[in-house]
Automatic annotation (TrEMBL):
The protein, known as: Transcriptional regulator
Domain AraC effector-binding: 2-157
Domain of life: Bacteria
Stored Gene3D superfamilies: Regulatory factor, effector binding domain
Alphabetical list of Pfam families matching this protein: Cass2
InterPro entries named among the record's database cross-references: AraC_E-bd, Cass2, Reg_factor_effector_dom_sf
Length: 159
């Protein structure tokens, strides 16, 4: 069951290790493959385990952010620890967020599903709010009944 709502969130910070996405922003298959390859790499080379080790909770963040006209994608966590040298400190503003909830068989599938619902359905249908840029994130929150559960958080403003 997927649903979405508008929620007020305090500002928060995610420490992320990232990659530049080279596919055109309209090439969803290319972008999804690049993200999937990146997650496979950080899972295998120990970077994701390192992040989990410094995290203040069990949430895993998949962050999308435009930085210096580049489309960036990060694996991140909330932490009080100092960021490793190659990491980016990603600031999410206090304010309203479109929150889309869902579940899927894998984290990769969850990320793609929630992004599709958020950008393909919820935002186009929105009459009262709009996404004006800034980082957005899929948050993997755990497992239930063999499925990965999570949410996508997109900062929005009232129209």
């Amino acid at each position: 069951m997927e649903d979405y709502s508008l929620e007020e969130k305090d500002s928060f910070t995610v420490i992320g290790l990232g990659t530049e996405l080279k596919s055109d922003y309209t090439d969803y298959a290319g972008i999804n493959k690049e993200k999937s390859d990146f997650w496979q790499a950080v899972s295998q080379d120990g970077r994701l385990d390192y992040l989990k080790g410094i995290a203040t909770n069990d949430y895993i963040f998949a962050v999308n952010e435009a930085v210096n006209n580049k489309m960036m994608h990060y694996a991140g966590v909330m932490t009080e620890a100092a960021a490793p040298e190659e990491a980016r400190v990603i600031q999410f503003p206090k304010g309203k967020y479109l929150v889309v909830r869902g579940e899927a068989e894998t984290a990769d599938e969850l990320n793609n599903k929630l992004a599709g619902l958020a950008f393909g359905q919820a935002l186009p249908e929105a009459k009262d709010f709009a996404y004006v840029g800034g980082p957005n994130t899929t948050v993997e929150m755990g497992q239930r009944g063999g499925l990965v559960i999570g949410e996508m958080w997109i900062p929005v403003v009232r129209k």
